[in-house]
Amino acid sequence: MAKWKITCIQYDIAFGDPEKNYEAIEARIERAMEDKPNILVLPELWTTGYDLTRLGEIAEDQASRTKSFLSEMARKHGVHLVGGSTAKSTPQGVFNTMLVYDREGRLCSEYDKAHLFQLMDEHLHLNTGTEKGLFELDHVRSAGVVCYDIRFPEWIRAHMSDGAEVLFVVAEWPIERLDHWRALLMARAIENQCWVVACNRIGSDPDHDFAGHSTIIDPWGEVIAEANETDEFLTAEIDTLAVQETRGHIPVFSDRRPELYR
Ligand SMILES: O=C(O)CCC(=O)C(=O)O
């Protein structure tokens, strides 16, 4: 069980300009720490944005720079860092990889986005991950997924069946489907009776306008905090005890009939 103050860093990501993006995120991490959160959450592909055609040039070999940067930030500030995702170049191709560090700067999770979003050409430039994004912070089991992954309830349920209590979502979700963003996050919280902490970006790139509206939802489905479409920090305090309380109240997990779900 844990009580955490969590801050999502919602901002605009420079298109295909890692140098600018490292500078921007470092300054925001410094500022966000003034409020002393226990966990910071960053958005999807924050080093490159959706400049997918130039990934050959700008994706990092094994995500090495992002990894040392996030580890150092987590250790320096003594904060758990759900470090958004980064374009990771490997001999098998490029992955959209979510990285999580604990406050000692130790890598807790390296999750490759499992579902690629064809509407934004991801399938042409990226490879699919095959492993779950489970990790523990302060002994609380959590799951981390990337953007389009939230459209796959069975994928999220697989994490929850493995004991996750908090779902972290990092995203670059376009504004034209803001209604879907809200409904899907809400549904994942209610059906899994878990906390949902979702960090999205704002701004535009040459092809998309992004929604912002980073959101924190409790296991009953109440929106505890929701950002606007501006450059802002979204902060809320969460108590993971609410997960056991909600699951005790309506025993969805023990009422499941997996033998019927084929
Ligand atoms: O599912 C959607 O509508 C948006 C997904 C997306 O933007 C992404 O996965 O990057």
From TrEMBL:
Gene3D superfamilies xrefs: Carbon-nitrogen hydrolase (3.60.110.10)
InterPro entries, per the entry: C-N_Hydrolase, C-N_Hydrolase_sf, UPF0012_CS
Keyword terms: Hydrolase
Domain CN hydrolase: residue ranges: 4-240
GO MF terms, alphabetically ordered: hydrolase activity
Family according to the record: Belongs to the carbon-nitrogen hydrolase superfamily. NIT1/NIT2 family.
Protein name per Swiss-Prot or TrEMBL: Carbon-nitrogen family hydrolase
Organism: Saccharibacillus alkalitolerans
